[in-house]
Amino acid sequence: MVTDQMRLNFYKQMVRIRTYEEMIKRDYHADKTPAWDIGAGLIPGEMHLSAGQEPVAVGLCANLRNDDAMTAPHRPHHLALAKGVDMKAMTAEIFGRASGLSHGKGGHMHLFDPSQHFSCSGIIAEGLPVAVGQAMAFSRRKTDSVAVGVAGEGATNQGAFHEALNLAAEWKLPVVFVIEDNDWAISVPKKVSTSVRDNSLRAAAYGIPGERVEGNDVEKIYEATKRAVDRARAGGGPTLLEIHTVRLWGHFEGDAQAYRGTELAEAEAKDPIPLYEAKLITAGILNETLVAAIKLESSNEVEAAITFAKNSPEPLASDVYLHVFA
Q: Is residue 135 within 8 Å of residue 146, measured between CB atoms?
């Protein structure tokens, strides 16, 4: 059952994540000359932001414990923050600073936090076999920890997706596969790349439960992921969930999105945060004063993390081979 306190917490977390993405977007573009040069500026490299997909991270992670493991895709910030990754260390990593999660050597697509059992990768579908390995370790240790592998809908057409589901099903491992369906694999719409209308149908091929969650509704996502996580903890094996969400911004920062046409405006009208905010105001859980306070708190926290990152030292050239090999 979703309580009013949980609803308020869901809203706070979604606002926190959106504020983070907005400010990272601001600083990513602030000093790039020319604007398209991904190697320039305070934040080097490509940048994939998750505005619109906050309900997936918040609803899912509300069911996870610290000892549960998560692998995320190349669009990872919402998942990392919801899982509990330290914002300051994560921001320093994105800025390429020595105080970052990987000492500034990984960047935004390669965030690793062993304390939260969180990892991600820029390689499509790469995290799903890793989640299977984590689930295998939990099973052999006879714990009730759960592994979660998150990927985009485009990743379901990679071999690693099918290999991971097959092994997880065969070994009845405590793993939940979560597919974030934002309708676009970069610039390719799902309807022209995938032979089934939703990927949860593919679960039947491996003899495991599959479910699709519509509406980008944090409460529905919480309930669906709770069923899957509880099943895994109880020894019921893997579940495949596909969650229909929305990508409000480009695949990467600098993406002109000409391929989206009128669909882009339709997506903006589905922004989950103002929709959920209006719902909670109507229910008497939020009011304008509380909304303003929540947004200010989030803004202050994110600005503090960015200031920490900017003031942190860059990695030393002499340390290039440290923390690379084990």
A: yes
